[in-house]
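Note to self: keep these together.
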Amino acid sequence: MIPSLFFCLAFFSVSSLSSAEANESPNGFTVDLIHRDSPVSPFYNPSLTPSQRIINAALRSNSRLNRVYHHFLDQTNKPPQSVLIPDKGEYLMKFYIGTPPVERLAIADTGSDLIWVQCSPCASCFPQDTPLFKPLQSSTFVGTSCGSHPCTLLTSSHSQCGNSGECVYAYQYGDSSFTAGLLSTETLTFDDSQGGAQTVAFPNTIFGCGLYNNFTVYSSTKLTGLVGLGAGPLSLVSQIGDQIGRKFSYCLLPFSSTSTSKLRFGNEATITGNGVVSTPMIIKPSLPTFYFLNLEAVTIAQKTVPTGGTDGNVIIDSGTVLTYLEPTFFNTFAAWLQEALGVELVQEDVPSPLNFCFPYSENLAIPEIAFQFTGATVPLKPVNLFINVQERNMLCLTIVPSTITGISIIGSFSQFNFHVEYDLEGKKVSFHPTDCSKD
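Structure:
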């Protein structure tokens, strides 16, 4: 698919009109992070029950795990590559592109790096109910050439020269979704949700001006692209790193909330106070997009279940809903948890992909459970651990066995009501338990 996309794009050329001037760097800013199933999301389906929304999210989580697995396989016989794994996009964010600024709604993804939007003239685009971004109508749009610094940030398998020497990019996903177009630079602008009517702008931001795009997973026409928040060089975080101290954080609300979560950059991302714990952030050269942590053990009451991990054995990811643990480790953890709860597991009518479910009881005593990362103990609350499947009168654990040996992921359920800070300069991830509705 990618070679054919390159062939088609070789005949496209978009002329640059002018270059952008750098603005004064902001100290920090905050944007709203919209969960796709919240009432303020264009994907919200009011006919679904809370349990159905959660189970659907769990199924999306399985899909994302499989895409991570395919990327791991890619690294076995190929050089390191950037990768997009948007899946069905658990979180969305609004931003503006160009001069004059044009509003866009995109997936926000810590497991991706490239920023891209659909552009005109589009050879093949998925439907959206707002006009495509018209680069020739923006005074700050600049196309990039082969051999330029932005183009060198693409891997050889994701880039090619067009007929006029323009830098062409192409990414393909495991479900036949793809984006391809012209690697370019533009001014990106964000509303600062903590600063009244203030906005912050970042000139010369590298992005993909998509001329061939397809998202097979969306029925809504509100979506226009993706914003990568991973550790790769083309992500928003990496590109504006100097202005924000290479630091961002988020506070994710439980699915039951009607508010929006917050995504913070720069000084506003810093978390301080009692209860803040930090663990080393590990970036692996073969998988530069992902944020790895080292999970040493999980404690259940007075028992400790060690993982034996020493070199970054879990990915922390906001776009994966469930937490996945390696099968052997999970089996030990689950056996000890069942003993501590004193329950019999339900064997039939368990909603896939959940597998640790038991009858609901108001009198159930939940033992203290915590993740033991290197240098940081992160205590989990019931909201991080269990789903109340009301239609079936059962509680189900949000931690499940990974179907793939060697891959474990700390998902968003385990991060609800935690302020989570990513400090790429200090190479650490910090956690602070909080009420994210008051963040």
